[in-house]
């Protein structure tokens, strides 16, 4: 009698397992490997369109450590051929196929170097498309941007960049500053100076660096941006080349971060900073 009860229970358990297996959600549509070549951690979000529920689904925010990588698995998106990602570290995909969405502060948070605009009710955000092949996809932060070819410098524009930059000489170094009234940090100075001539560039040195093709030291022209790195593969400092082996930059000569102090000054390429020179960029 006991054996019969056990057999019946086993049959019931097997049937339940079959039912649960049939009702289970589809296996993960893809595994996403994310590599981060920055010297600081990067966050990203993944978005995809689910035809079953007829909705765009933001599957969450994830973080990748500095100079590291992680693999993520995304379920309930069977046979997905592509998805979209947002991160300040990755600008991939075909721009014509990227999507833009209006997001609100309560449903979207920015990476630390791009806070949500103060007082804004919503913001237009671009998600870059990436393809999925054989159930897997890859993103690389800091290494997959499509660079623009180096352009010949229009006559006189480089000199105008230098002239405006030299007018900022003596202004205080202020971490996060990008105006003559508040002071400048290194990328704030380049962002401001080029902006005065209608040249729109990214706000931070790492994004400015990855936007264009590299220019060697011997090919630098006045008005080119010059980038330096002391500790890793990503730029930590930027200035504006003024010619004759010199550049102007906002230097933090004391301290680091929000408490740093310094001044906008002219520096010379010597053996020390040539050693840490990464390359130039021409935004004109």
Automatic annotation (TrEMBL):
- Domain of life assignment: Bacteria
Which Pfam families does the record associate with it? NLPC_P60 (PF00877)
- Keywords, alphabetical: Hydrolase, Protease, Signal, Thiol protease
NlpC/P60 domain sequence ranges = 155-284
Which positions make up the signal peptide? 1-23
InterPro entries linked = NLP_P60_dom, Papain-like_cys_pep_sf, Peptidase_C40
Return the similarity comment.
Answer: Belongs to the peptidase C40 family.
What is the name of this protein?
A: NlpC/P60 domain-containing protein
